Amino acid sequence: MCGSSCNTGICCGIHENLVQDCVECRWVIYDQTPQVIYQSSEIVSASGSIEQSSSTAGMTQVTMTFSIGETVIKNFTLTNRQCLAFTVIGFDTITLHGNGVSPLESASGRLCITPRYPAF
Predict the structure, then answer these.
(1) What one-character DSSP code corresponds to residue 105?
(2) How far apart are CA 103 and CA 3, in angstroms?
(3) What is the mean pLDDT of residues 28-55?
(4) Which one, of 117, 62, 118, lies nearest residue 94 by Cα?
(5) What is the pLDDT of residues 62-83, one digit of tens each?
(6) What is the dihedral of CA 38, 42, 44, 50, to 10 degrees?
(7) Taking the alpha carbons of 86, 31, 43, 8 in that order, is the dihedral positive or negative?
(8) How far is the C-alpha of 74 from the C-alpha of 91, rounded, in Å?
(9) H or E element, residue 81
(10) What is the pTM of this model?
(11) C-alpha dist (Å) from residue 31 to 12, 35, 51, 115
(12) What's 57's DSSP letter?
């Protein structure tokens, strides 16, 4: 179920209230131009999936980068018609960039994530 809710989580014996949301978006990227597809005002942890549903012949890979500011936390690489499930801890931005050299090269897909962050 998507939406906001408070859950009591227990991790290493520490009780904390967590808020989680469900975020879904469709994306399109062109050539090697980076595209921010998710950005948070807080550092979050998230589970989710991303699919690359189509691409032109010259766009053979799309790299998904999780970062905090300029610091890269994790990278994943997708190829055409590939779907990837992930869990990443401690990031505030997700950026996609492709490997197509021409501005006519593109890829598209869908991102679904459930970010979790401490309740206020």
Answers:
(1) -
(2) 37
(3) 95
(4) 62
(5) 999 999 999 999 999 999 999 9
(6) 0
(7) negative
(8) 9
(9) none
(10) 0.82
(11) 44, 10, 18, 28
(12) T
List strand residue ranges (DSSP E) for 56-118, in order: 62-68, 71-78, 82-98, 106-118
Report which residue type is found at 107. Answer: A
- Taking the C-alpha atoms of residue 91 and residue 65, their distance in angstroms, rounded to an integer, is 10
Enclosing H/E stretch for 17:
strand 14-20
Side-chain half-sphere exposure of 119, counting CA atoms within 13 A: 12
Which token pair is 109?
Answer: 């897909």
CA neighbor of 53 nearest in space, from 30, 29, 15, 81: 81
How far apart (Å, rounded) are the C-alpha atoms in residues 88 and 90? Answer: 7
Say how many C-beta atoms besides its own lie within 10 A of residue 41's C-beta. Answer: 7
Write phi, then psi, for 48 (nearest 5 degrees).
175, -165
Return d(Cα 31, Cα 3) in angstroms, integer. 34
DSSP state of 3: S
Query: What tokens were used for 76?
Result: 């994943």
H or E stretch including 48? strand 35-55
